[in-house]
């Protein structure tokens, strides 16, 4: 049975000076393990790569996006298959283990996985290596001519909120979305973890199905703050414009500079801050 992304609960709500019984919805948060099957040419190995707390839904995209943004796979052609591991464990663990099978000619660099990828919905991958290591695995990307007018850009957070279905019911979930330079929504993913939402988005684009958007020519909009990990994932996907509703961290700004990513924070209908490279943002009012 397919897992849902919301969970009904009965609560007692205090409002307008009164206590009332109320039916509410919560965002579901469950662990998901990513296992990798690969061969060295002589025998097959199965390795547990990561455990992340996520909102069920688009799990295969999450696994693909994670493996891609961590530099374990470079393209969808390296993946032979992907499925849930349902033959082990208890019934409640069904669809909580995703198994990714690499092609026989793919040799992943497992040696660079010097840590266990245990993640949480709040902090992402713990023990993140230095930016230099990110630079070493970040692929060379095509040059993008993507630009966006600032009067279009300031409309994106509201457009994002309108289509955040799970957030509308729960108020406790993050979103990542691709928009065109003209402000058209191309794809949206939601998750209780902001890093998971972005991995799902990138994983969907990586799968290349149904004329999905090209990250290189898409504006990435984040519903919350912009952390180093999110900018690292954007760099791996070749994204050149990142717009966040919240603030960026200092390391996120440094990462944007290292990988030539236009980074915008505190994006609202009437204001925004450019933290790196305004050459891709066409402004109606010149800066003073």
TrEMBL record:
Catalytic site: 123
Family annotation (Gene3D superfamilies): 3.10.20.10, Cytidine Deaminase, domain 2
InterPro entries given in the database record: Cytidine_deaminase-like, FdhD
Subcellular localization(s) per the UniProt record: Cytoplasm
Keywords: Cytoplasm, Molybdenum cofactor biosynthesis
NCBIfam families the record matches: fdhD_narQ, PRK00724.1-2
Its job: Required for formate dehydrogenase (FDH) activity. Acts as a sulfur carrier protein that transfers sulfur from IscS to the molybdenum cofactor prior to its insertion into FDH.
Family: Belongs to the FdhD family.
The protein's name: Sulfur carrier protein FdhD
């Amino acid at each position: 049975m397919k897992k849902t992304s919301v969970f009904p609960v009965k609560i007692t709500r205090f409002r307008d000076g009164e206590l009332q019984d109320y039916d509410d919805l919560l965002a579901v948060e469950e662990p998901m393990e990513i296992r990798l099957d690969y061969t060295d040419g002589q025998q097959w190995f199965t390795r547990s790569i990561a455990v992340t707390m996520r909102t069920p839904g688009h799990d295969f995209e999450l696994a693909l996006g994670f493996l891609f943004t961590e530099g374990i796979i470079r393209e969808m052609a390296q993946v032979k298959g992907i499925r849930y591991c349902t033959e082990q464990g208890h019934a409640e663990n069904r669809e909580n283990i995703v198994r990714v099978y690499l092609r026989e000619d793919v040799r992943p660099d497992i040696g660079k996985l010097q840590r266990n990828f245990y993640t949480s919905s709040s902090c992402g991958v713990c023990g993140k290596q230095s930016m230099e290591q990110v630079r070493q695995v970040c692929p060379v990307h095509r040059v993008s001519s993507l630009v966006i007018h600032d009067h279009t850009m300031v409309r994106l957070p509201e457009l994002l909120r309108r289509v955040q279905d799970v957030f509308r019911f729960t108020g406790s979930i993050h979103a990542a979305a691709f928009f065109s330079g003209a402000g058209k929504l191309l794809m949206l993913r939601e998750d209780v973890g902001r890093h998971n939402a972005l991995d799902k988005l990138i994983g969907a684009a990586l799968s290349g199905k149904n004329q999905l958007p090209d990250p290189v020519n898409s504006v990435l909009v984040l519903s919350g703050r912009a952390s180093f990990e999110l900018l690292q994932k954007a760099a791996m996907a070749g994204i050149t414009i990142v717009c966040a509703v919240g603030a960026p961290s200092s390391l996120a700004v440094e990462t944007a500079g290292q990988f030539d990513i236009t980074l915008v924070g505190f994006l609202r209908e009437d204001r925004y801050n450019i933290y790196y490279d305004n050459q891709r943002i066409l402004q109606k009012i010149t800066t003073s």
